[in-house]
Design goal:
The structure holds two protein chains of two kinds. By secondary structure, chain A is an alpha/beta fold. Chain A is built from six helices and 15 strands. Helices cover about 25% and strands about 30% of the residues of chain A. The N and C termini of chain B lie far apart (about 75 Å).
Amino acid sequence: MDIFVCLKQVPDTNRVQVDETTGVLKRDGVSSKLNPYDLFALETALRLRERHGGKVAVGTMGPPQAEAVVREAYWMGADEGYVFSDRRLGGADVLATSYALSQAIRRAGDFDLILCGKQTTDGDTAQVGPALAEHLDIPHAAWVSNIEVDGDGVAVEQQLQSEVLTAWMPFPCLVTVEQDIYMPRLPSLKAARAVRDRPVAVLNLDAFWDTDPRHYGLSGSATQVERIFPPENDVRRETWAEDGAADRLRAMLEKMGLMKKGGGACGADRDHRAEM
Amino acid sequence: MARIAIIERKCDRCGACVRHCPFQGLDAENGCPEPNAACRVCGICIKVCPRQAIVRLETKVESVDKSLWRDILVVAEAAGGALHPVSLELIGKAKELAAEVDFRVKVLLIGSGISKLAEELRHYGADEIAVYDDPGLSFFRADAFAACAEDYIKSAKPSVVLVGATSLGRSLAPRLSTRFHTGLTADCTRLEMRANTDLVQIRPAFGGNIMAQIVTPGTRPQFATVRYRVMEAPERCAEPSGAVAVRKIPKAVAASPVRHIRTQPIPPAANISEAEVLVVGGRGLKKQADLEMVQKLAAALGGEWAVSRPLVEKGWATNARQIGLSGRTVRPKLIITCGVSGAIQFAACMNKSERIVAINVDPEAPIFDVAHVAIVGDLYKILPRLLERPEENPT
């Protein structure tokens, strides 16, 4: 079984800068790391390989420096890696990003299973995985906390809000995994030495089936960031010092009918709705 | 726009595609066939290829006549036999947006045995409720649900599609927006409608430090997801309105290869999104046992307790109790935060609470920017006194 794991290099910090004219995130000059959610996808791939054989390929779209996250995946045990790097891919939204990934993965090989982390820590949208499955025209399952190979497909346990839904999908398919699926292994120093010379393939747009640059990056994006602004804040506020704060708070809670005079609670056990 | 591509590795040079192409749109001079300028992307080659080596590559539509796309569609969710309240919140928001540009509000409901829920939806002021009701839709399969939504969107041509940012919605919406080669904006916290029908979508971006204003200027529909408890739910009207349109089930539902194995309901647990009173513990708590003060106060107020991200990372509480971009959004009547610094990822998910009381020793803590009552003090001095029983109370 051949597995492809999507990786992303994300800023190591939340203090990021935005290009004021284009509204695009500036990624230069900020230290980067592998998106932590991707570790769970990679670990899942390695476990499946241990049980069922095959290979684990990883790939990331980003600048040439994104090779670092592919190397990290090698240290954990990935067999081959790709960086999809091209200036023309930059500034992409969900549509253009997932399209570029679909093109790149088709070039990288023929995979039974594509694994993604549930989301990234910089975009936080959790949208690229399902969008990629749509471009590849394969079924997908999101929020998966357990995966078992079953015949010519996988049984996946999806964490929906009010239920855990287990379903079977045929290969090829795409799965985004939750962080409780497997504890990621630590990169091995021994492995790092062994894979020091393992090449990382770099593909640019000219290697894709669709080489029209208008379909990628900023120009291939359907959404446009018009403006970036700090969160608004127009709260009317009163500030209390520590002395006497407990009593003032008690008085306030009593006035709201949440506490009985003198301190006893009057909130009865409430009927909480099932989590939805 | 689309084009045909041949996967060289899979092609065994049998020539079937070249022979069957009605337009002489494929050349095979160098072995593996390649589409030429005559290709009309009819897809016959895809069907005749015995090796599935030919694919259609979709690319985005360059521009769209916006006047052809009208109305606002809300994709309602009926998981576990009940309407998800986010669906009602979205109908309320859709009505506001629709009024700006004289659009109607339509609701799409997909599931099995959902006619009662469709009737219930008539009480929230939508103009039409489209229903896809079929045993094949009794469990969530993104492909089958997307096929139904695609069918309806193609016929109704909505300008805007709003989807709840639930697990289901966040799995379905990207498939749909991609199918229509259009934009999707996740977790919008504010939506506004422009006269030219462009939807202004505002969301916390880049980890939540900054708000981004996003539009989808050249394509339709404009897809947006909104989290539960971000928009206000409309009042239920006693009189039903709008018609229920029962739609024919697309063939793709029966054709879906995804099979149901089992559904296990998650046992009803404390739900911080539903609580009207929340007491929240943060990094200012020194040890796990101190969380008990937070729990006690929550119980005393008839509310629930919650935590900020650091406490989940320490393993003191589960993700279900976490407020924040990686946890839940809450909008209670009262929220008391104890030792929470209030990073924007946290604040963005609770700043719509009716009354915010923040306790923190650091007067510079960002939580005070969103608090209505800012208590600059030590939670270890304030909480124990607040929790004193009447007989111990010196007054």
